[in-house]
Amino acid sequence: MTSPSLPARPCGVRRSRRGRAFVAAGLIAALLALPACSRVAAPGPTTPTARGTGSVTGDWTAVGLFADAVLADDLAAAEAYVVPGSPAARYLRFQSDFAAADPARRKPSPGTWAVNVDRHLGEVTLGVGGGTPVTWTDWRFAPDGRILQWSTPTLGALETRLWTAESSATTPAGTVTLASALVNDTSLNVVLEVTSAAGTQTPDCGATYEAPAASPTAAAAPAASAAPGPATGRPADGCFGTERIAVGTSGRIALQFLDARLGGTVVYTLTDAAGATTQARLTVR
User: Fold this and answer.
1) What is the largest CA-CA distance in the chain?
2) Domains, in order of start, for the chain
3) Residue 78: strand, helix, or coil
4) What 8-state DSSP symbol labels residue 136?
5) CA-closest candidate to residue 168, choices 270, 259, 98
6) CA–CA distance from 108 to each of 11, 28, 68, 103, 113 (Å)?
7) In terms of Cα–Cα distance, which of 101, 34, 23 is closest to 67?
8) Label partner for 66 (CA 20 to 30 A): which of 186, 200, 207, 232?
9) Nearest CA-CA partner of 28 in 120, 134, 165, 142
10) pLDDT tens digits for 106-142?
């Protein structure tokens, strides 16, 4: 599932802080960092979702096949089971973007994961290797049985953990666009598309994240802007992406910010042909 915009020279650019490595995209680990298994009763059929009121009645065989396709990194197959434009579909888009940013990505080996569907409790338990199982519960379905979304015991509904707004910033050196973003139980994971307009761009693994203002009355930040000056946010805890982005081409960069949530601003530095740097600021919400 390689993005056609990626240049032919990706590298293993990876960075972690405090000894905590970026989740590996090879096993769709943005999924696997979700909360550990717990037993939660399925809710009633009138719980609203972003796509309207979803039913708890669906095709549980299809749910199992969907989860299996996600763990197999077969997102094209998984798309057949979700409603277009739903939180479930946006989740698959994030996973595709995240995988496209990883130069070391490999398809998982068959037999290295397990999917258990409990129709009575309305939950699906996922296990990979010897890792702690994770659970998806509170499944919501469209009238035709396709998947709208699900929840996790720790963070709740999927729709509250996905980006919902487009954001892009252009500088003399190039353009940075928010491709997608997802919050799991440990971190905010952001995928950017970087297009070079001047000079060869390399991943800015020193990109920072400025947390959203704590006060609800604080002035809203612009969705995106380009401005010089030092960054004031926390640096990325993990990073990988395209090694070199030549002029006129684009590449994907994935950034991880531990214990972060949506609503803040990524500050990403671009460098032009003369070596001058400019910061692109993008709100992630």
Assistant:
1) 63
2) 15-20+163-283 (2.60.40), 25-160 (no CATH)
3) helix
4) E
5) 270
6) 20, 9, 12, 15, 9
7) 34
8) 186
9) 134
10) 888 888 999 999 999 999 999 988 888 999 999 999 9
